[in-house]
Task: structure prediction
Amino acid sequence: MTDDFVPAHPDQPGLDPAVDAGEHGDAILSLRDVSKVYQSGDSEVRAVSGATMAVEQEEFVSLLGPSGSGKTTLISMIGGLLSPTSGQILVGGTDVGALSSRELTRFRAERVGFVFQSANLVPFLTARENLLYVSTLQKRVSRKEAQKRADQLLSELGLADRAKNLPEQLSGGERQRVAIGRALMNDPDLILVDEPTAALDTQLGRQVVELLAREVKQRGKTGIMVTHDLRMVQYTDRVFEILDGHLTHVEQPSALQH
Amino acid sequence: MNLALTEMKRSKLKFGLLIGAVALLVFLVLFLTTLSTALVTSITGALNGLDGQVLVYSDAARDNLQASRLPPTVVAEVEKVPGVAAAGGVTLGTVSAELLDGSGDLQLVGSTAGEPGAPTGLVAGELPARKDEIAMDGSGYALGDEVTLSEVDRALTVVGLLKGSQFNASPTGYVVPAVYDEVVRAANPGVPFVPLNAVAVAVSPGADPAVVAQQITDDVPKVKGYVKGDAVSLIPGVESITQTFGILVGLTFVIGIVVIGFFFLILTVQKMRTFTLLRAIGASTGKLSAAVAVQIAVVVIAAGILAVLLTYGAVQGLSTGIPVTLSPVLVTGTVGAVLLFSLLAGLLSIRRISGIDPATAAGAR
Result:
């Protein structure tokens, strides 16, 4: 799989994300003029600038842009890993930027499921335990319930017979599937996926993204996938293009396929 | 599911080696402390175990029991001092004797059972009441054994066994004053009286031993009164032994704690990627810190058990000539202190964890 960003060249440029946001009034995720500025010595680095977007429930959208365009910063702010310098991020009515550090930790544990680049599993926990650990971060889930859910997820992801394996005993694709299971384990509102195919070959990459899209739809979740690979956007409902920290267009995936 | 214990279960070799290393450090602390305690007890036990709260020496003795010489009449003079409930003479000297393991030096103490100055460390039998009886501490005596005092060429039957009552780290025998007098007179036929080394004093109920000791110094000519604890610490060599071992034990303890702290800091640094991931998916700093604390506690407790077994084995195999025993109080105190300070040293790791930026899991920094 190529790592080079393939620029989109639709015949008709898509909508401005701010205009598009106005058409999704009942969105579960809503960003209003969100910016992130880093201090680097005496100068400022504007990683994300005035991002406005809206994503509805059961939508699986992609955030497409080249390396350094600000897509990981944007998804990190949405997931409560970073606080915006300005603007507002609403997830199901919760203003993420207004949460304290402790509240952000709880927000991530209960309302967000992350799938990071190159799987990122806990190396000394088995596939099943990687899922079960998520349930220990929530007070409301009983042990029995959690075990049942973990087994069900692993089974659905085709990993039932790999449940007792450590990450080092799994293939790249299996590890990524475990990470997807972990992201779904806490029954989150949002599933945020960062370059899920980075460490996988094309075929496996497609399978993983297809699986993600299916899980998001079936479970009625909202998913955002960061990618710089144009071939993966076909599995998403809409594509937000980002360049130099600016959300530029919202496209239909079909408009980007050539 | 417990993250800390699951990791330990999966990394048996790593944590096994860590437990082994910590166990050796705890063993060193325990062993040195045990040895130091045994050595000090074997030097001070006789004096420390004498019945009474105040001791009186000759003022020319320079705080040294063995250099003190007092006429027997001083006992009556001391008894008259306000605050003194009772007083008894104590004689002490090194004599030659036929012991179980052959001829050797015996510390012979003369005192009267039931009076101040009698030993309190009796663990079997009774204190001597007659001239052919002796109570022993050291050399592995049993009740009914005999000790022959070379100067008088007379065998005394062991009627009592004492513990923690040795003097000068030597076998020590307790006899009635008349036997001690007999030994001294046999070696010094023309001596007008057998001097006492000390007068032991029981203070009246409610009286302050320090005040009574000063009162005796003031009221009785040519004597000096000491609170017993002060007299014990003034025994030649005790202070230097205590200080030397104190430095050794203290240094080993501090190094051990620092090493344990570094061990866990290294483990934490090795796991930073995992900790960052866990912070990103919603694990709190407190939860991760608790996992480190649980691992420290398990390692130190397991190492403590191993160290106690090692120390017990070493104590059993020791042949020092002084009674060395492993004290439960010492074991509990040492392992407890190591655990407490190790947890404090674990703050290095916890500080590292609290500094984790979860955003780095996504590579957003």
Chain A touches chain B at residues 72-73, 75-76, 79, 81-82, 102, 105-110, 112, 114, 116-117, 120-125, 129, 132-134, 136-137, 166, 182, 186, 194 (CB under 8 Å). Chain A has a mean pLDDT of 87. The longest strand of chain A covers residues 43-55.
